[in-house]
Amino acid sequence: MGVRIQGDLKELNRRVRSLAQVRLDRVAANVGEALVSSTIQRFMEQKDPTGQPWQPLAAATVAPRARDFTKGGRLRKGVEERLQGRKILIQSARLRNSITSKRDGTAVAVGTNVVYAAIHQFGGMAGRGRRVRIPARPYLGVSRADQAEITRILQEELGA
Q1: Do 142 and 32 meet the contact criterion of CB atoms below 8 Å apart?
Q2: Among 15, 85, 100, 107, which residue is least crowded by beta carbons within 10 Å?
Q3: E strand or H helix at 122, and its extent?
């Protein structure tokens, strides 16, 4: 049993040679940089990797003082305006500014070393006695736009 190849062998040879010259470490570095950039952009857009908006902040998060509420638990007008203008997950910008990529040969990982990062990514119970429910607000992940950018980076490296 044999293998038969039919077609433009010069083009095939050219492509095989170009694959041999691909610097996967450079590809991984470029992919990591692109993913860090898109992750930081999610903080600005207040959306998860699928494009869904993050769940809004709870009134108690923005107005933790009792005087910010009127009778019946409704927020005063000025407090409502503060709530609408406040960015989610950017109170100190520590989480957003901690997003980095790390390469190990041809593999790349994007993440953070901030202790509270996981509760915001996945949601869960937090606070003293774990009585406060924090909704998941995913910021890490690979979006469709990220996939397209990774493809573009690979094609550029391959000269395609």
Answers
A1: no
A2: 85
A3: helix 117-122
d(CA 27, CA 37): 15
User: How far is residue 33's CA from residue 150's CA, in Å, rounded to a whole number?
Assistant: 10
Strand partners, 100: 111
Surface-to-core class of residue 82, CB atoms within 10 Å of its CB (0-12 exposed, 13-18 middle, 19+ buried): middle
Owner of token pair 């980095």? 100
Extended beta strands in the chain, E state: 100-104, 107-111, 124-126, 132-134
Rounded to whole angstroms, how far apart are CA atoms 106 and 33? Answer: 14
31-59 residue pLDDT tens: 999 999 999 999 999 999 999 999 988 76
Tell me, what DSSP letter sits at residue 80?
H
Residue pointed to by tokens 């470029």: 30
Which residues are CB-neighbours of 48 under 8 A, at least 6 positions away?
42, 54, 137, 138, 139, 141
Torsion sign, CA atoms 108, 117, 138, 79:
negative
Looking only at the bridges linking them, the beta strands covering 132-134 and 124-126 are: antiparallel
Tokens matching residue 123: 């949601």
